[in-house]
Write a structure and sequence with these properties.
Layout (H helix, E strand, L loop, with lengths): L3 E5 L4 H17 L3 E8 L8 H4 L2 H16 L9 E8 L2 H8 L5 E5 L6 H16 L4 E4 L10 E6 L6 H11 L5 E8 L9 H4 L1 H4 L8 E7 L3 H11 L4 E6 L2 H7 L16 E5 L3
Parallel strand pairs: 1-2, 1-4, 2-3, 4-5, 6-7, 6-9, 7-8, 9-10
Antiparallel strand pairs: 5-10
Amino acid sequence: MFSRILVPVDFSDNSAVSLRYALELADFVGTASVKVIHVFTPSVATGDAITMSPVGELMAQREEDLKRFMVDFAVPAGVTLDAELVLGFAADKIVEVAVDADLIVMGSTGDADLLEQVFGSVSSSVAQRSPCPVLLVPKSGQFHDYENVLYASNNLSLSRRAVLRLMDFNELFRARVHFVHVNDEEGSHEGQREKLFAPLFSNPDPEFSFEIKEVNADSVQEGLVEYLDGHPIDLAIMVTKNRGFWERLFHRSETRQMVLHPQTPLLIMHVNE
């Protein structure tokens, strides 16, 4: 399912965490290749360098930065690791390259310097626009076999197709799935529950264990964070059908840092109608 993993980096500590996470995930699921890209956008260079140095010189410096960044990562047997420097606007280029990827793994936030602040907003844009699933890794993220997975849903994101997609993903891990339905201020669609979860009950001997929980909260984000705080969840998954749900969850600003929970990676999968 994830034979090609793409890892955008900005040379920050969080990027290093994300690449290490991606390599360990690749080793676990048998991924064939991991590709690292750094997108260089001259307009975000710090100081006066952009007015003093030709783009070619700045690109050469970033090439050296990328080489130094890659030195410390051990590559699992059977996995190929490549790195490429790309010139352009970060979110646009990442989405463009992702056409040939099965999964993007990237940091969920940036908060140290200008590059990381830009990268934090990039993760938001990429997660919304990516043609493939996006795994957002928090700063403290460390990969291990997923034993408990939270599937986040509300009346905008829940669909039969989304549940089927989740089941395909979980064939890799056989994790216990916590289906968490948040009843927020817009209400819930209780009448659809049996129909939506029908794929789980169609097999008399389900391939993985699961439980269905309902949470009452003022917002989807509040309900999910409360559940994550109280349960040993290794991965949160959101399957979205449209941007509306995304904006309701991270609604304050497109540049809002993409953190649902500081210890829990977040996997975004899109399902088209």
